[in-house]
Predict the structure of NADP-dependent 3-hydroxy acid dehydrogenase YdfG.
Amino acid sequence: MDLTDRVVVVTGGAGGIGAALGRRLVAEGAAAVVLADTAADRVRAVADGIGPTAHAVVVDAADADQVSALVADVERQYGRIDLFCANAGVATGRGLDAPDADWERAWRVNVLAHVYAARAVLPGMLARGEGYLLHTCSAAGVLTAVGDAPYTATKHAALGFAEWLSITYRDRGIRVSALCPQGVDTPMLADGLAAGHLGARVIAASGAVLTAEQVADVTVASLAEERFLILPHPEVADYARRRVEDPDGWQAALRRMVVRLGPGG
């Protein structure tokens, strides 16, 4: 996809990967980048810092009505949406002890937000015969987020949904990419480390933490190639092969890591 003169929406745009994507998309020549987030002050500050082609809106990506209104407003103002980046996400750092409220929030933000975005934006894209969906699914959707059961389950669901969209709509002009980074230096990782979450400590111990800007660079390059699976950490492909070829050995290695880095590790 050539990003020049494109109209783009990015959810989760107040920081981390979303903000980095916003900056990079504008640098690539996008006509307008609409950054959506629930954190009003932060998303407005990001948009103001990027410049006049970036615009901030306060929207909950996990609310179907708000997403529908966002899409309608952008289409009314700019005539179309060329690329919708469903980027909002939440982690819990919990296992079976996670309360139902955490599971519900993870499901709504990590999965249903992608469904709501697709429902709202696809009619216009299909009518034009072209459009692009970018879903941030995480390497947890390809592998496993040790220490976080809701995150693992919902990110697997998000990746499955993105694949379904690609299979169903690509021949009708719709491109879909699933962005699956592993460790990224974002507030989500920082908050997890501060809380002592096992998954965050595993990521930090791996020594393979990228900046959000590096992830944005890889993402833009992959959008140009219209690749379905975007892996800013190329080693994730090797991990995935090992996971499929030797699931028992893969799980054993993760269990050893959990023992080493678990409470008191």
